[in-house]
From TrEMBL, chain B:
InterPro entries: ABC_transp_permease. This is Xylose transport system permease protein XylH. CDD domains: TM_PBP1_transp_AraH_like. It is a multi-pass membrane protein. One of its GO terms (molecular function) is transmembrane transporter activity. The keyword Cell membrane applies. Keywords: Cell inner membrane, Cell membrane, Membrane, Sugar transport, Transmembrane, Transmembrane helix, Transport. Part of the binding-protein-dependent transport system for D-xylose. Probably responsible for the translocation of the substrate across the membrane.
């Protein structure tokens, strides 16, 4: 996979963003969910989208997923202006979205879930080909799935999330959006999913990761985009930003309950 | 990133190669059936006589066909409580069309099936458009359709079908000549063996885990032995009825569609999780409408078989325990009412169980009231087992 190394080698400098959002506005009736929001996504980069509850993160990615249409503002994909009127249009552009819940059918096995909605085979399903490709895909992601012929209900939370993420790759997307993929997971399973996110980056994909867990964000993200009350509130490059700075941008104040707690604890331990 | 290693190492060693209906599949039903047969045979040795079994098969065809439709709606987690009335309406249309209507029979049959399709279309529309629970829509439908049935039948209330008409001959006079039955049994086994063998070869070529050549041969061989014994034994009496064979063919065809086609996969997906199916790009509304239409068409078809078998269509067509037996058969056969689990073969297994009980009790000259009570009890038992297995799956993280 030489292509992957090329892309990831110089991802920060020369690459133009694959996807840009400029001046996005979105209201639900009287609620202004998004005001003049900008977002860039580069190939081979993990962008973390953070913000408090109701900051507008899900709304922003739902616009990319074709679930909602923006009121104003423009989206470009590969430097061409695009509109994303439906989930199908989003998928055709090469944007894959992994929603946090309700993305798998518990009664179907892994292969059926991976290929759901885009099965291989003309008149009859080609189960052998689908199973073969499932193994190839899961192996590329170093996924630990014991069998692809068990119902996904019998898999652990992390394995299920792996299947959901693997499924988004079936359509060969260029951008993958993960809405709180680790929210319900334990420590080991979270690590599994984070490894997976890194592997997506190695494959040269642009990844948008929504998370409330700043440790996770700092572990895998290249950039952190902060939303606050539906507006951009800072973009940070990960190695250069501290935990406190991100917290400050999320909450909108340097002197908050959280930073106060942290400094208090710092003093006590001294 | 290095190239992935050979594909076999992680491959499953489990015998789960296909979508299965539940943890134990059809084993409990088959065991239950054997027990029922043994008990009734002890109580009355006429039970397992070839003549009785030939009749039993004929009795299975009509309600069994209706039950295929129930399997379909249950797979998407819905129900149709009006299949009995729909079958009665179809019988009435054919009866009146053929006799006082003077229609050619194919037209009358087509009319009955189209009426069924329209009923299903209406249910599908009401369900997908307004989100009314299917049991309410179809309960209202039950009332309205039986009214329609009375309207079609007119003041007399009953029409007798001509004995020499195709529909009557097909449902009770025509039997498969024994040599042809043997031929079909062999052909079925050969087809299963061949497809199994080809699929095994293909899996090996693709580097996937494959069943052993022995197991590929043993299954069709066992099936062949069973089929040959059945054909021989029933052949000592009148043989296999055309209508029963027709029902079998419908089950096999529906099973193929459900397990091997994209549409079938989308049916299971919708039954498993509607939202996940929608997000995967499946047009959920169309799946529901298609299912309701198919269910009502199967109900109409079953009504035609019943009319042919009774040589008449009347107010009582599709009444009585038709509804309940069709639903009970699907559940007893192992299809879950909670959606996403089951198989077309449930209709076959379930209806054989129900008709065995009914036939056995009749042989003991027990009243029909006792039959109703026992069938009701068996249905409750099946539903309880369904709910229990669902709960245990949830407890073991198997959805
Ligand atoms: N479909 C909708 N109808 C009306 N208001 C909505 C809708 N979706 C979102 N909103 C509003 O838009 C705002 C942003 O919501 P959004 O779901 O994008 O937040 P979020 O950042 O994803 O929060 P969380 O971290 O809790 O998931 C909220 O005020 C929310 O109430
Ligand atoms: Mg959200």
């Amino acid at each position: 996979m030489t292509l992957v190394t090329e892309v990831s080698g110089d991802r920060h400098q020369s690459a133009r963003p694959v996807l840009t959002m400029r001046g996005i506005n979105k209201s639900f009736g009287a609620v202004r969910a998004l005001t003049d929001v900008d977002l860039d996504i580069h190939a081979g980069e993990v962008v973390a989208l953070v913000g408090d509850n109701g900051a507008g993160k899900s709304t922003l990615v739902k616009i990319l997923a074709g679930v909602h249409a923006q009121d104003s503002g423009e989206i470009t994909f590969d430097e061409k202006r695009v509109s994303i009127p439906s989930p199908a249009a989003s998928r055709e552009l090469g944007i894959a979205t992994v929603f946090q819940e309700l993305s798998l059918c518990d009664n179907l096995d892994v292969v059926s879930n991976l290929f759901l909605g885009r099965e291989i085979g003309a008149a009859a399903l080609d189960e052998v080909e689908m199973e073969k490709r499932s193994w190839e895909l899961l192996r590329q992601l170093s996924a630990k799935i014991p069998s692809v012929r068990v119902p996904v209900a019998s898999l652990s939370g992390g394995q299920r999330q792996t299947v959901a993420i693997a499924r988004s790759l079936i359509g060969e997307p260029t951008v993958v959006i993960l809405d709180e993929p680790t929210a319900a997971l334990g420590i080991a399973q979270t690590a599994e999913v984070l490894n997976l996110v890194e592997r997506l980056r190695e494959r040269g994909l642009g990844v948008v990761l929504i998370s409330h867990n700043l440790a996770d964000v700092q572990a895998v993200a290249d950039r952190v985009v902060v939303l606050r009350l539906g507006r951009n509130n800072g973009v940070f490059t990960v190695p250069d930003v501290s935990y406190e700075e991100i917290i400050a941008a999320i909450t909108g104040a340097t002197d908050t309950a959280i930073t106060a707690r942290d400094s208090r604890r710092g003093e006590e331990s001294r | 990133m290095s190239h992935p290693p050979a594909t076999t190492e992680l491959a499953p060693r489990l015998p789960l190669f296909r979508l299965r209906s539940g943890e134990l599949g059809s084993v409990p039903v088959v065991v239950g059936l054997v027990v029922i047969w043994i008990v009734f045979e002890i109580l009355n040795p006429a039970f397992l006589s070839a003549g009785n079994l030939v009749n039993l098969a004929l009795q299975c065809a009509s309600v069994g066909t209706i039950s295929i439709g129930i399997v379909l709606v249950a797979l998407v987690g819905q129900i149709d409580l009006s299949v009995g009335s729909t079958s009665g309406l179809a019988a009435a249309i054919v009866g009146i069309g053929m006799t006082s209507g003077g229609w050619p029979l194919p037209l009358a049959i087509l009319g009955a099936l189209v009426a069924g399709a329209l009923v299903g279309l209406l249910y599908g529309f009401l369900f997908t458009r307004f989100g009314v629970p299917s049991f309410v829509i179809t309960l209202a439908g039950l009332l309205a359709i039986s009214g329609l049935q009375r309207e079609v039948l007119g003041p007399d209330g009953t029409v007798n079908l001509p004995y020499d008409s195709f529909i009557v001959q097909f449902a009770q006079v025509w039997f498969l000549p024994t040599p042809i039955a043997y031929g079909l049994a062999v052909a079925a086994a050969v087809v299963i063996a061949l497809t199994g063998w080809l699929s095994m070869r293909k899996r090996v070529a693709a580097g996937l885990s494959a069943p052993s050549p022995l197991s590929v041969i043993v299954r069709p061989l066992a099936l062949l032995v069973v089929l040959l014994v059945v054909v021989w034994y029933l052949g000592t009496d009148r043989g296999i009825g055309a209508s029963f064979l027709f029902f079998l063919a419908l089950v096999v065809a529906m099973n193929y569609v459900l397990t091997r086609t994209r549409w079938g996969r989308s049916v299971y997906a919708v039954g498993g999780s509607v939202e996940a199916a929608r997000r995967a790009g499946i047009r959920v509304g169309r799946v529901y409408v298609g299912i309701f239409v198919l269910c009502s068409v199967f109900a109409a078809l079953g009504g035609l078989l019943a009319a042919g078998r009774l040589t008449s269509a009347g107010l009582s067509s599709g009444g009585g325990d038709t509804n309940l037996n069709a639903i009970a058969a699907a559940v007893i056969g192992g299809t879950s009412l909670f959606g996403g689990r089951g198989s077309a073969f449930s209709a076959l297994l379930g209806i054989v169980v129900i008709q065995s009980i009914s036939s056995g009790l009749t042989l003991l000259s027990l009243d029909s009231s006792v039959r109703s009570i026992i069938t009701g009890a068996v249905l409750v038992l099946a539903v309880v087992l369904d709910a229990l297995s669902r709960r245990s799956r949830a407890a073991h993280g198997r959805g």
